[in-house]
Amino acid sequence: MSQGNYYDNIASIYDQTRWMSESVAEEVADFIVELINAKPDTSFLEPGVGTGLNVLPLVKRGYSVTGIDISQEMLDQFSNKLKGIPPNLTLIQADASHLSFPDHSFDVVLTVHMVHTVSHWQRFLDEIERVLKSGGFYLNAQWITPPARMEFESYFKAILAKGTNTPASSPRHTGNREISVEDYFSKKGYRSNYAVAKKWLVSNTVEELLGFLKVRAYGLCWRSSDEEFEQALNEFEAFCLRHYSSLTTEILSEAQFEIWTYQIS
Question: pLDDT grade, residue 96 (50/70/90)?
Fold first, then answer.
């Protein structure tokens, strides 16, 4: 299944199966607005915008926001939250790694856990630098998976890997080790800063997390045949009953939203 089709298939369940809530997104937006000293006319671009979780608060506050995503279904989910597309929002269905904008188009470019998904990351960063206005900001961010939830997934990956040719530790995208956004911008004279915009607790029952797997909410769920996946899921549910004692057991741990900020010195 192609990446585009994967996101099309999970668009309707994307938000509810992740751990970034609307209230957290509002607080992250507060942090970003203060971080860059945003003005009313500050413009934002998010390649890989998805359902708009990261920038929806900025749209609601009246900032000019452009979002690109390969999945039209994801973009439709974004526009549905607003009951249409307001004048300050532009949504483009396209490969988010190709930025077809004039030079110096945006004050801020935001990427959230997506640089590793592009095939030519240096070319992509070249494009980000090109479309940034003088004095603009590139914000490279990610949500950190709550550790207990990551452990839960690791158990399932191990079981799933037994019945497929995909190793349990196999990354979703290749080339992660070679990517160094920090080195790229440092060599071009940008100053950088790291900050944790928000920490928050994420709680799910074992049953809820099993439900997310059953609807194939994550990329790891699409790597095997239907038969292999169902067999692994049945085995994993039995494992969860032994390991967690009950499907109603709460899995609680801390997530965080990290931002690396780059601005020309």
Answer: confident
Q: Is the pTM of this model over 0.85?
A: yes
Residue 203 phi, psi (nearest 5) = -125, 130
Whose CA is closest to 111, among 11, 13, 181, 8?
Answer: 181
- Rounded CA-CA distance 220/170 in Å is 9
Cα separation, 117 vs 179, in Å, equals 11
Helix (H, G, I), strand (E, B) or coil at 135: strand
Q: Are 50 and 74 in contact (CB under 8 A)?
A: yes
- The pairing of beta strand 132-144 with beta strand 190-205: unpaired
What's the rounded Cα separation, in Å, for the pair 208 and 233?
14
- Cβ–Cβ < 8 Å for 203, 251: yes
Token digits for 250? 């709460």
Closest C-alpha to 50, from 139, 127, 110: 110
**What average pLDDT score do residues 170-190 get?**
73
- pLDDT tens column, 191-230: 999 999 999 999 999 999 999 999 999 988 988 899 999 9
Taking the alpha carbons of 154, 156, 162, 163 in that order, is the dihedral positive or negative?
A: negative
Q: What is the CATH number of domain 3-146+172-203+255-264?
A: 3.40.50.150
**Integer Cα distance of 261 and 265 in angstroms:** 12
Angle between helices 226-244 and 206-214 (to 10 degrees): 180
Tell me the C-alpha distance between 232 and 33, whole Å.
Answer: 44
